[in-house]
Design brief:
With 242 residues, the chain is of the alpha/beta class. It contains 8 helices and 13 strands. Helix 6 (171-182) crosses helix 8 (207-220).
């Protein structure tokens, strides 16, 4: 089922919300970070309590996703130190422990919400959005148009044009192009593309990415200055034609 993109939340001055993700499991931290970057957040990650405290002082996050179990000191202590510097920062606890007493302890310590592993990324995103709305974040104007150079994509009508010429895409090609256009000039690995376009649970090989990139190139770049570039050993990048 196709999910409609929800307008991004922003800070009162219109800049992106800043999020700190703290989890000693690097893959989990990066998955959450990638999902929230796709939603328009500016994300910093940390994998220990001490690095989390240092990162919070530097980035001044608008919200924190915080694992309770960390290798140096636990999330409760991280929360105490964070709140000493910023008493109002919303915190979403993340933990593999699901006992009632753990949830109560986290919320009593000052956490604003609680998600138990295993979790869905959609649930984390939804809970953070709810926390930020309560904290007064602004909802950005709902512009459905993405533009990179002479390429435009309308997320509502699902129309794509290059230099004024309409381009017909399949549903998967559209999602792949949308992900590339939401990250212009950024090199995206095959793994990142698989995770985002195939919803994190695709069991196939990375060559499906190569296949769909080739489909897109035939439609987007054929007879034109190329916009989709291969970065050997790294992934793919979309940038305006020179």
């Amino acid at each position: 089922m196709e999910q409609q993109q929800v307008p991004a939340l922003t800070r009162p001055d219109g800049s992106p919300l800043r999020l700190l993700v703290v989890d000693d499991e690097v893959n989990i931290a990066e998955l959450i970070a990638m999902a929230l970057r796709y939603e328009g957040w500016q994300v910093t990650t940390a994998h220990t309590g001490s690095k989390a405290v240092a990162a919070a002082k530097e980035s001044r996050p608008d919200a924190v996703v915080l694992d309770i179990m960390l290798p140096d000191f636990d999330g409760m202590e991280v929360l105490r130190r964070l709140r000493s510097g910023d008493p109002g920062v919303p915190v979403l606890f993340l933990t593999a422990r699901d006992a009632v007493e753990d949830r109560v302890a986290g919320l009593t310590a000052g956490g604003d919400d609680y998600v138990t592993k295993p979790f869905s990324l959609e649930e984390v995103v939804a809970r953070l959005r709810a926390l930020m709305r309560r904290a007064g974040a602004q909802q950005a104007a709902s512009s459905s148009l993405l533009s990179v150079g002479d390429l435009t994509l309308d997320e509502d009508s699902r129309e794509v044009f290059r230099a004024g010429a309409e381009i017909s895409l399949t549903a998967t090609e559209f999602e792949l192009l949308r992900f590339l256009m939401r990250n212009p000039r950024r090199v995206l690995s095959k793994a990142q593309i698989l995770d985002r376009v195939w919803n994190y649970d695709f069991g196939g090989q990375a060559n499906v990415v190569e296949l769909y990139i080739s489909y897109l190139r035939k439609k987007i770049d054929a007879g034109r200055e190329p916009m989709i570039h291969t970065m050997r050993g790294a992934g793919y990048v979309l940038k305006p034609a020179s």
